[in-house]
Amino acid sequence: MMPTNRPPSTPETPTRPQPPSPTNTRPLRLIAALGQWGDVQPLSNLFAPGNGNGIQMVTWCQDGARLVDDAIVFDADVVILDPSLPSFALEDIQRLYHSEARPIITLGAIPPHGEWGSTLYRAGIKGHIELPLNDDNARRLTALIHSGLQDALRERSSASYIPQIAPQLAQVIATQGWQRAVIAVWSAKGGVGKTTVAENLAMLLGVISNRKTILLDANMAGGNAHIHLRLSPQRNIAGLARLYEGQKRLDPKDVLGYLTPFRNNLQVLVGIPRQFMAGELCFQGEAGRDFTRALIETLHSMSDFVVMDLGQDTNSAVHLQALRQADQILVVVNSEKASLLDTHEVLDTLWEHVQMDRSRFRLVLNRFHPEHGLQRKEIVEVMQLPEVGVIPEMSEKVTASLNSGVPIVLNGGGEVAESLVRVGTTLYPPLGQIWGQRGKFKPKGKGLRQRLFGGTRE
Ligand SMILES: Nc1ncnc2c1ncn2[C@@H]1O[C@H](COP(=O)(O)OP(=O)(O)O)[C@@H](O)[C@H]1O
Ligand SMILES: [Mg+2]
Question: What residues are neighbours of ligand 2 (ion), with CB under 5 Å?
Fold first, then answer.
């Protein structure tokens, strides 16, 4: 049967989706991805605007190739899918399920003939009803939708959820060892790429790998992360330091109130928005040291990874204490001889006078270009530190990502991203595989999404 008309409730033009918010009480949006109008009709009756089911049908998709785009345009929560729809690709069920803003679940509308049932469940549907649809079996959908979505949300908020990953891969990942860690990103010089490395590592761990991660901007020369990531500077490390000054202790509840959620499992403790704030007593001497110790201990207890962006100045009590407490210190250097020698000198002082354990230091060579005239081997020899990553010089890419407010590893691939992934893999080995799988489930309608969402982050 060919469709003769469209359901009257179907909007003809996409409306701008509302950003998700916990207080959002709009009805759930349903897309009917079905071949026959006869099957769509019971849904359009049952889920007409203003119905009491808390679910509203927003469009009828007749072309499998358009399904993911339609789901994003209409900000859908659920798709009722006839798998015999023309041009439908089975992997779209996973694309929808792992879509960035929220899971979009799929329920199968299974044709009476054929083997679709088990195939669809393997592909990730959350339930099914049988075709043809009528008022009776369509009514079963209400309960299926609510329970399927609850499942999906529970899964997404669990520690083992990894976005954009096939179940078989998740099993492989579970067998790989890794350790929770506090990671300091530091250099003896400004402008070498500390913030770039720290932010992107935090994205790789907290957003891409979905491990509970906190990016701590503890740079006492002035915080940058909130500017790069377009976060409000209102809740910042200085507020927390003053709180500690008053009560002399911190617990996770105190800290939570100062964290800014970024995306997936990444939270940010914004740094001092103005440099003069570093002069406050709570950051100085013993007070600064005690606060930093309490802060890092608390953050560590709340997360899998703490990534700290530190300033270069080792006279700052905050920086020094953070270096002392880090499990790993990534020393960022550029391929410039004078800066390498400076860094080497500062490191010598740290090792001798501050008695810092040398084995925790690693080298990250940033802005590397063979034409700079130094070889990687020479640099490692001068620094006497094991190198965990070489990031190429690529100003256009890095600047473009700064200007867009989207860190480079969330902004597609490229050599800089790939080399940052290699650094991240030394901290969290499954990252390599997660990154490899990532492209496969990317929503197809990226450009479209960007157009629709305008200024919001991709
Ligand atoms: N691999 C790179 N290629 C080109 N430019 C880079 C690279 N890494 C960082 N930059 C640029 O260098 C500047 C300093 O980087 P930043 O991360 O802020 O350094 P720091 O935190 O050490 O002061 C920024 O303008 C940044 O865009
Ligand atoms: Mg910086």
Answer: 194-195, 224
Of the candidates 271, 267, 209, 231, the residue with the CA atom closest to the CA atom of residue 405: 231
pLDDT digits (tens, 9 = 90+) for 30-83: 999 999 999 999 999 999 988 988 899 999 999 999 999 999 888 999 999 999
Number of domains, the chain: 2
Our mutation pick for probing the ligand 1 site, out of 189, 203, 331, 398, counting the most ligand atoms within 8 A of Cβ, is 398
Do the domain assignments include residue 62? Answer: yes
Query: What is the token pair recorded at 171?
Result: 């099993």
Last residue of a domain, one of 129, 158, 187: 158
The domain that holds 99 is classified in CATH as 3.40.50.2300
Find the 309 Cα to ligand 2 centroid distance in Å: 7
Pair (152, 232) in one structural domain: no
Residues 333 and 191 occupy one common structural domain: yes
CATH number at residue 267: 3.40.50.300
Range of the domain at 358: 174-441
Query: From atom 7 of ligand 1, which residue's Cα is the shortest distance away?
Result: 367
Closest atom, ligand 1, to C-alpha of 199: 17
Q: What are the Cα distances from residue 5, in Å, to 10, 36, 50, 353? A: 11, 11, 22, 81
- Give Cβ neighbours of residue 321 (< 8 Å, ≥ 6 apart): 288, 289, 292, 293, 296
The burial of 435, by beta-carbon neighbours within 10 Å (0-12 exposed, 13-18 middle, 19 or more buried), is given as: buried
Q: Write the pLDDT tens digit of every residue in 98-139.
A: 887 789 999 999 998 878 888 899 888 999 999 999 999 999
Q: Which residues, judged by CB distance below 6 Å to any ligand atom, belong to the binding site of ligand 1?
A: 187, 190-196, 366-367, 391, 393-395, 398-399, 402, 416
Q: Is residue 15 part of a domain?
A: no
pLDDT for 298 equals: 97
